[in-house]
Amino acid sequence: MRSTFHSIETAKRSLFTQQATINTIGHNIANANTPGFSRQRVNLVATRPIEAPGYMRSNIPGQLGTGVEFTSITRIRESYLDDQFRNANRMLGDWKIQSETLGKLETIFNEPSDSGIRTVMDNFWKSWTDLSKDPENITGRKIVRENALALVDAFNETSKHLTDLSNDITSNIEVKVSQINSIGASIADLNREIKRLELYGDNPNDLYDQRDYLVDQLSLIGNVTVGKTADGYEISIGSVNLVTYDVLTPITSGQLETEFDAGRLGGEVAGMFTSRDKYVRDYQEQLDAMADTLVNGEFSVTIPAGSTYNGTTLTADRVEVVRGINGLHRLGYLFTNPPQQAGDIFVSKGGPITAASIDLAQAIKDDPMAIATSMRTEIINGANETVKGNNTLANFMASLKDTSFRFSPTSSGNSISNGTIDSFYQSMLGQLGVQTQEADRQAANQSDIVNQVESSRLSVSGVSLDEEMSELIKYQHAYGAAARFMTSIDQILDKVINGMGIVGR
C-alpha cells in the first residue's frame, strides 16, 4: 500500500531541485562578464526508488520512484585548455616586453629625424667642410665648436636614456617580483580556505575559479608550474617553489635571474631580463664603441708633401696610421708664436672614452682658435710661424665622414670591424629595425594564439547567455509542473479528507 503523502514528498524534492538549478543558472548569468568565471551546472539524479509496501514481497511490478535530487554543483572546466593557455600566455608576456623595449630603443635613437645622432654628425662634418674653405674664419671655428658640443650632447643624452631605460627595467623586475609574491600569497590563502570547505563535502567552485584566475595572471609573468595535490595547488616559477598548500616561499629577483640564465624562466620577467641584458646593454656597448672609435679608432691618412710632421717639412707624401680624430687633430698647428701643435678635440669626463663620458676639450670650449686647420709651418722673417690659409687638416677632418676606421671589439652586437662611422651607426639602426620588426611579429602571432586558445577555453567554460536562457526556460517549466503536481495532490488529499464518507449525512 502506497503512502498517502508519498507524492507530496516527490513534488517537494522536485521543487527544491528545480529551484537550485534556476538559482545556479541565475548565478551564471550574473557572472557572464566576470574574468576567470567558469559556468556551473547542477548534477541531477533520480532518488533511490522504493518497493511498494506489503506484508510479503509485493507483487506489484517495478519499483516506486521517489523523485529527483541534485548530488553536486560543479563547474565546467578543461585542464588541458588551461595548460595550453598558460603556455601561450607565458610566451606572449616574453615577446610583448621585448617588443615594448625595442620600441623604446627606437624612440631613444629617434632616427631618421632632424635631432638624431646621424644629423648631428652630418652637421659636424659639414662644419669642417665649410671651415676648410676659409680656415682662418673665426665664425667657422665657432660653428665647428658648437657642432662638436652638439655631438657630445647627443652621445651623452642617448647614453643617459639607455642607462635610464636599463634602470627602469631593473625596477620593473622588482615590481614583478612583488607581484609574483602577492599572487602567491593569495593562492596560499585560497588553498587553505578551499581545503576547509572540501572537508565539509562542499565544492567551492567560485574559489576554484579565483585560484585558477590567479594562476593565469601568474603565467603571463613567468614560467609557472602547477602541481595538483589533495591539499591544493603547489606553484613553482621555473624550478623555484613559490607555494606549497598554504605556505608561501617568497621569490627574489636574484633567483629569477638564475632561472633566466638557466633557460627556465619565461613570461614578462624573462622578457625584461632579455631586454636589459641583451638589447639595452648591446646598444649601449655599440654606442660606446662608436664614440671611442671616433676619438681613438685607427685609420690611415696620407700626409701631403710640404706639410710639417714632427717638426720636419716632408719632401714626399707620407702614409701615417692615426688614432682617431684626436690623433689627426694633433698633427695640426695653432696660430701661436711659436707654432704649437694642437691638442685633443674630445676628452673623457673620467675613465675611458664612452658615449656617457665623452666631452669637448676645455681649451676649445674657452677659445675656438684652439681648433687647428693648418698642417704646415715655415720660417717667415726669421721666425717659425704656422702657415695661414693652409687647410690641409680641415680637409682631412671633413673627409673623416667617408674614412674607414678600425672599430674596437666592444661592439658585440655589430659585425662591422672596419668601416666609416656613419656605416657603423647605420648598421646599428638596421639591426634595431630588424629586431623590432621580429619582436612585433612574434608578439602579434603569440597574441593571436592566446586569443584562439582563450576562445576554445571560453567555448567550454564561458557563459553563453543564449544557452543559459534556454536552460532557464526549461527548468522554469519543470518548476511550474512540479508546483502543479503539488497542487493536484493537495486537491486529491482535500477530497479524501474532507469529501469522502459523508454521503447520507
Care to describe what's here?
- There is one protein chain.
- 34% of the residues are buried.
- The protein has 505 residues and is of the alpha+beta class.
- It starts with 5 loop residues before the first helix and ends in a 6-residue tail after the last helix.
- The strands form 8 sheets. It has a 4-stranded antiparallel beta sheet with strand order 3-4-5-6.
- Strand 4 and strand 5 form a beta hairpin.
- Among the domains are: 108 residues, no CATH class; 212 residues, no CATH class.
- The chain has 12 helices and 18 strands.
- The mean pLDDT is 91.
- What is the topology, as strand order, of the major beta sheet? 3-4-5-6
* N- to C-terminal distance: 29 Å
Q: Secondary-structure element order, as H and E?
A: HEEHHHHEEEEHHEEEEHEEEEHEEHEEHH
The pLDDT mean sits at: 91
Identify the overall geometry.
rod-shaped
Instruction: Tell me the structural class.
Output: alpha+beta
Give me the count of strands: 18
Q: What is the radius of gyration computed over CA atoms, rounded to a whole number of angstroms? A: 41 Å
The main pleated sheet reads as:
4 strands, antiparallel
**Percent of residues in β-strands:** 5-15%
Instruction: Give helix % range.
Output: 55-70%
The total count of helices amounts to 12
Q: Which blocks of ≥5 consecutive residues have pLDDT under 50? A: none
